[in-house]
Amino acid sequence: EVYFKNLSKQKQKKVMEKNGNSHKLRVCVATCNRADYSKLAPIMFGIKAEPQCFELDVVVLGSHLIDDYGNTYRMIEQDDFDIHTRLHTIVRGEDEAAMVESVGLALVKLPDVLNRLKPDIMIVHGDRFDALALATSAALMNIRILHIEGGEVSGTIDDSIRHAITKLAHYHVCCTRSAEQHLIAMCEDHDRILLAGCPSYDKLLSAKNKDYMSIIRMWLGEDVKTRDYIVALQHPVTTDIKHSIKMFELTLDALISFNKRTLVLFPNVDAGDKEMVRVMRKKGIEHHPNFRAVKHVPFDQFIQLVAHAGCMIGNSSCGVREVGAFGTPVINLGTRQTGRETGENVLHVRDADTQDKILHALQLQFGKQYPCSKIYGDGNAVPRILKFLKSIDLKEPLQKKFCFPPVKDNISQDIDHILETQSALAVDLGGTNLRVAIVSMKGEIVKKYTQLNPKTYEDRLELILKMCVEAASEAVNVNCRILGVGISTGGRVNPREGIVLHSTKLIQEWSSVDLRTPISDALHLPVWVDNDGNCAALAERKFGHGKGIENFVTLITGTGIGGGIVHQHELIHGSSFCAAELGHIVVSLDGPECLCGSQGCIEAYASGIALQREAKKLHDDDLLLVEGMSMKKEEVVSAAHLIQAAKLGNTKAESILRTAGTALGLGVVNILHTVNPSLVILSGVLANHYVNAVKDVINRQALSSAKTVDVVVSNLADPALLGAASLVLDYTTRRIY
Predict the structure, then answer these.
(1) Can you tell me the distance from the alpha carbon of 720 to that of 611, in angstroms, rounded to the nearest whole number?
(2) Assigned CATH topology for domain 205-365
(3) Which end of the chain is more exposed for a tag (fewer CB within 10 A), N or C?
(4) Average pLDDT over residues 408-436
């Protein structure tokens, strides 16, 4: 684990010496409801598995002990945890006052429990009012607090409670880098913050229940199929109860109209929950043939239900956090989760004020499959948390210290705590080779793997997955955190769906291929796919001459001719994803035949294949070789031989290259007169041989207003891989949550 790479061993050794080798850390875990138990249970299992290091005390309170909410304390017992104390702390009521009274009742009962347990540290989760009572009691009784999921931003009163607990807590475990930065901005000590990921993801990313159909049938009926049902989970918004009740009514009306089997879970304990239950009963949800209304679903089974659902709808944090791990479509209603970081599977309906608006969202989302998202974790949170717990020195002063601004200076000086370098897996599918690389945010190729591109679809996909898995494993060793996978491939690509629509002749069995789904499912990472020409343009925009340029064109001059067009800082794909097929601009009506089937294309004159064709003709007529050149008998004639002959004074070769350069230049002039870029970037192995010819043609043929364009040769060593990486890095860094 990178966080502890330079610090943990020495610190743990000192801690053991100070605390005494025989001392066990006494940890109290307090759980209030079914939602926080799903996050705390993996940590509890980890603590229980190391009895030589920890003693675990479990305190249960809140809605766990209420029949209306399923008596969910039973699932803690089923997990074989000994419950030390049960505290009935919920005051029944339907308004905000009941929540305040519940906090007060918990504050009255907790001191006696904590006096008896005398824990070294208490683990508190989240942003519920019960958790605020726990943190307040522990802080006032000089008990160290470890807060899980601090620093996040959602909506309603939860934000205020979460941040209040942060100020009371001594140690913080956060799930995302943004949350970590929020904690630092709130003046929390960076040494006491651990970016671990969400503990529930440890179970989510390893959940492989082959018998998920029996779970689906048990909760939704025998006739239900995967991706053909909905999971609904909606809670009252305590800062606007009346509006949230109205929104719940509209949601149920939309679900009834949508006419799909739906599992509806009862809301949690908040002001307004009873009114929501009355709305359900008023609309006959519990007896409707399309609905199943339940108080509680065990977390292991709930995982399978949302993983295979056609859609999840509501305002639960589960929808915007855990469900992203499966790529299940989510409709997030209202403001309860405003500010949460989300994957692209979440469609927000902020102001769900009509049934039609919600119904339209259902029609858009139902049945889709999105890339799996790992925003909230990579499946290794618990080991990190246990190491963090072991590093706590009980002899350190209990009084918190706050790190006031400037925050940025603290980060830059505290290099030991900077986590993995954000990086992308880049895949380049060429006609000959298949390459995979780890590319950093700065465009550095940290590690590169190359194999021959297999001839069949099955072998090719298998090799891609194998190389990506190998690269992802190596990323840990080279201190890189992989944000996603970007794929550059020849042919026409639908980047929205991640599908290769039609391949070039250079890559066989590569049409109508869904690349996103199998790779995302295998790696649990988001996947982006685009045409190799577009990727070259993206590489220039992020790392090359195109950086900061509003309008530019990239032309790849290699085996074929391709390119990409950036207009107003955005890549142009076109209505059917064939924009920027620059190699197939026709510059002669009776020119040589192109691989596309047409005649006179730029590619038929200036591509590596075209030059090789002309070189072979010269060689067959014994007109290629000149003094200073030699070829082995078995050596294949290539474009390189033509270029070498021209440099040595072969007039025939010079004429062919001059014609090729003119054809390319005429194509560039057509581009200038169509999209009027301020910059043309020539990329690829032939770029240096063409740049002067292109400039000459522009000076002769272009309109005077277009002659001011700059024509440069790319300085990027590997634009295909860098462009594939840009697909990932641009997306992850420009999103605003």
Answers:
(1) 22
(2) Rossmann fold (3.40.50)
(3) C
(4) 67
CB atoms within 10 A of CB 55: 15
pLDDT at 240: 83
Interatomic CA distance for residues 337 and 314, integer angstroms: 10
Residue 134 to residue 701: CA distance in whole angstroms: 78
- Residue 729 backbone dihedrals phi, psi, to 5 degrees: -70, -40
CATH no. of 545-715: 3.30.420.40
Write down the pLDDT at residue 209.
60
**Binding residue numbers for an N-acyl-D-mannosamine:** 492, 504, 532, 581, 584, 603
Q: Looking at the predicted structure, is the pLDDT value of residue 418 above 70?
A: no
Q: What is the CATH superfamily name and number for domain 413-544?
A: ATPase, nucleotide binding domain (3.30.420.40)
Kindly list the catalytic residues: 532
The tokens of 106 are what?
């918990």
Distance CA 145, CA 649 (A): 80
Q: Are strands 570-571 and 561-567 parallel, antiparallel or unpaired?
A: antiparallel
pLDDT tops 90 at residue 554: yes
CATH class of 23-198+382-391: alpha beta
The answer on pLDDT for 412 being more than 50 is: no
Asked if domains 413-544 and 545-715 share a fold, the reply is yes
Residues comprising the binding site for Zn(2+)?
Answer: 584, 594, 596, 601
Domain extents for the chain?
23-198+382-391, 205-365, 413-544, 545-715
Q: For residue 89, count CB atoms less than 10 angstroms from its CB and return exposed for 0-12, middle for 13-18, buried for 19 or more.
A: buried
How many Å apart are CA 612 and CA 31, to the nearest integer?
A: 71
Q: What is the DSSP string of 715-734?
A: --S-HHHHHHHHHHHHHHHH
Q: Is 179 left (phi over 0), alpha (psi -120 to 50) or beta?
A: alpha
Give the other-Cβ count within 10 Å of 613's Cβ.
Answer: 17
Residue 460: CB atoms within 10 Å: 19
Angle at 734 between CA 726 and CA 423, to 5 degrees: 45
Q: Can you tell me the distance from the alpha carbon of 98 to that of 275, in angstroms, rounded to the nearest whole number? A: 14
Integer Cα distance of 653 and 644 in angstroms? 9
Confidence grade of residue 737 (pLDDT, cut at 50, 70, 90): very low
Q: Rounded CA gap, 438 and 426, in Å?
A: 6
CB atoms within 10 A of CB 584: 20
Q: How confident is the model at residue 410 (pLDDT cuts 50, 70, 90)?
A: very low
H or E segment to which residue 492 belongs: strand 492-494
Per-residue pLDDT tens over the stretch 32-80: 988 899 899 999 999 999 999 999 999 999 989 988 777 889 999 999 9
Sheet of 480-489: strand order equals 445-452, 433-440, 421-429, 480-489, 527-531
- Pairing, β 480-489 against β 291-294: unpaired
Omega within 30 of 0 (cis) for the link into 406: yes
What average pLDDT is seen over the chain?
88
Q: Length of the chain, please?
A: 737
Distant-in-sequence, close-in-space partners of 591: CB < 8 Å, separation ≥ 6: 599, 600, 601, 604, 605, 663
Is the pLDDT at 299 greater than 50, yes or no?
A: yes
Q: How many helices (H) and strands (E) does the chain have?
A: 25, 26
Distance CA 14, CA 19 (A): 9
How many whole angstroms separate alpha carbon 69 and alpha carbon 63?
6
